[in-house]
Amino acid sequence: MNLDFNGRTVLVVGGAGYVGSVLTSRLLDAGARVRVLDQLIYDNGFSLQHLLDRERITFLRGDLRDPEVFARAASGADDVALLASLVGDPVCKKYPELARQVNADGARRIIDDLDALGVQRFVFTSTCSNYGIHDPASFAREDSELNPQSRYAQTKIEVEQYLLERATRMQTSSTVLRIATAYGLSPRMRFDLTVSQFAWELASGAELLVYDAETWRPYCHVRDIAKAIMTALMAPPEMVRAEVFNVGDNTQQFTKRMIVEEVQKHVTSTKVTYRDGDTDPRNYRVSFDKISDRLGFQMDHRVPDYIGALTAAVQAGVFPDVRGNPRYGNYEVRHLG
Ligand SMILES: NC(=O)c1ccc[n+]([C@@H]2O[C@H](COP(=O)([O-])OP(=O)(O)OC[C@H]3O[C@@H](n4cnc5c(N)ncnc54)[C@H](O)[C@@H]3O)[C@@H](O)[C@H]2O)c1
């Protein structure tokens, strides 16, 4: 797929986040004019500091729930990628009303406004967590039954359904991406995600407590997530309009125990305790055939290749003071009334 964005203006809502800051950078490199709308709810403006003097970037601080703010950000944009939300179940549980207002009501209102604003392409970033519990003996496909186990996934499914009910009648070509759990380095790191959390804990000599070691999950590098979003924005509309694509790779699915074993190839610490019965029962493997067959999407990264780089960085002191630090995870919302 040609990913040359010269001449296109892309609005990234949530462009200062873990995935968004990587997407923003890739879009600039691909020639796009990029607008970022982000409320910096975790004080995470540092993620864009190195990009703000690049040509073709405009940053707008604001709340997507405000229709005027969104209209200002989107007017004249060719494409909109919606990434902003309260991401992950812990933060959605901690702020249930905000999660409803931002993830569900806010996203629906944005969808309602797309046609009137003349937006040509829209990508909604959803999650493979929507499959929840799915017998890992078979791979969940885009048309498999959804089985959400969290408030976070419920809000994502509500928006997916709202969008898909309208997408064939909309002028804007709209696509849902159900993305695997992210890993990889980003200007806004998140150590509240399995691969990076396990690698950080073991590389810093801490004791790692792992619940439900045999549960499966697919993983996708942040740079590959950015590539998938760009692929969906660039594909001919007839291939992506009103379509759902899982984003990941069939080979990049691991149990938690397998991730621990990968990390242990790079660290000497063996302080791991396994327990059953966590509050997060998710367990699923996913088929990524559709995005590869129809859009030719291939990932450039593999989980095992990342772990060595991260553990070396942690051991070199690149990431001190990570535990519970809002800079490094979605622990505490600081700016959202
Ligand atoms: N990280 C993952 O493992 C993963 C996996 C699957 C899908 N996704 C999806 O990818 C997207 C991005 O995830 P992420 O990990 O980068 O999350 P993140 O929490 O790092 O980033 C979210 C960004 O949205 C902004 N934001 C939140 N509420 C806002 C509001 N009301 N108005 C304006 N900005 C607001 C935040 O300030 C933050 O910069 C989400 O839609 C998420 O559901 C992520």
Automatic annotation (TrEMBL):
Domain spans labelled NAD-dependent epimerase/dehydratase: 10-248
InterPro entries: Epimerase_deHydtase (IPR001509), Lipid_A_modif_metabolic_enz (IPR050177), NAD(P)-bd_dom_sf (IPR036291)
Entry's transmembrane regions: none
PANTHER family xrefs: BIFUNCTIONAL POLYMYXIN RESISTANCE PROTEIN ARNA, NAD(P)-BINDING DOMAIN-CONTAINING PROTEIN
Name by which UniProt lists this protein: Epimerase
